[in-house]
Structure formats: structure tokens, C-alpha cells
Amino acid sequence: MASYTRPVVFSVNEQLFGVDIELVQSIEKQLEVVSIPNATEYVDGIINLRGDVIPSYDLRKKFGFPKKSYGKNDEISSIVVSTKDTLLAFVVDAVHQIGDVDSENIVTMPELAKCEEADYLDRVANMNGKLVILLDTDKLLTKEEVTRINQVKEKASNEAKE
Predict the structure, then answer these.
(1) For the chain, what percent of residues have pLDDT higher than 90?
(2) Residues 54, 87: contact at Cβ < 8 Å?
(3) Could you read off the pLDDT of 85-126 as tens digits, one per residue?
(4) How many CB atoms lie within 10 A of CB 61?
């Protein structure tokens, strides 16, 4: 379980989420995503980040939010995060801050909001009067998604070598 004393706070569909800064590899702007046919439902494609092939994971789809059309002037960001199984690039609407949170301002997810399909919704932080949902990235992917993502990464790496 992450400590979240310094979460990276970002928005998706105007809602605030956070991931532990220790899991974040980088924050990138406007990465080119290469589409992958028949990829996992939440994977838009792959990115090439300094030689690493990383799946681009659509949090809007995962969270059931409506699709958003981005214009050329939109500041789309990707947060490259380590999970226990792989690296993922989360496409987010905006990155807001790297915050400091006192442990007394972090509470467990309310029982009404918990369900087996969304056990990645870990805790809630009160940051300057705003609620930030803290994600457990290790629980974000199902075993099937991890398997399919690793297959996509392997295929993409093999094609890049040819």
C-alpha cells in the first residue's frame, strides 16, 4: 500500500485523482500514440518513450467517463506509472500538482464507493478542501489485462526490431 504523502494529482473528466509520486516514472505532454488493433479495451495503443514501448492506458474508458475529443491546442498529458506488472502511460486531461498530504487528511474509501470491480480506488485525500481519489495502480489491471498488455508490448518490440 502506497504512502501517498506526495501524490501526483491529475484530472480526468473534471474529477481529481492521485497516484503516489514514488510510482511515477515521468510526466509527458502530447505523446504520439500508435494504435494497436485488438488491444485490451482500455489500451489506446502504445508510445515510444526514450526507446521503451509502453501501453497508453485510457482512464476515461476505465472509469466509464464519456470520450473526449482533444483539439490541437489541448494540453493532454500522460503520466508514466509503474505497476507491479508493467509500466503504463495514463492519458489524463491535466496534471495539476505534486501535493503534500498529511496522513490525517487521508481516509479509506467509503464503503458505499467500494466494489470488487473498482478496488483500485484506494483512499481519499482532502487537499486544501478538495477531495482527491487516490489510486492503487497495482489493482488497476486485471490479470487478463496484464497478460494482453504484455503480449502487445512483446509484439510491438519484435516489430520494432525487424
Answers:
(1) 22
(2) yes
(3) 788 999 898 899 888 888 888 888 887 777 777 888 889 999
(4) 16
**32-52 in b/e burial notation, b at 16+ Cβ within 10 A?**
ebeebeebbebbbbbbebeee
Whole-angstrom Cα distance, residue 96 to residue 99? 9
* Gap between the Cα atoms of 158 and 160, Å rounded: 5
Write the DSSP assignment of the chain as a string of letters: ----SSEEEEEETTEEEEEEGGGEEEEEESPPPEE-TT--TTEEEEEEETTEEEEEEEHHHHHTPPP-PPPTT---EEEEEE-SS-EEEEEESEEEEE----GGGEEEPPGGG--GGGTTEEEEEEETTEEEEEE-GGGTS-HHHHHHHHHHHHHHHHHHH-
Q: What are the φ and ψ backbone dihedral angles of 96, each rounded to 5 degrees?
A: -100, -45
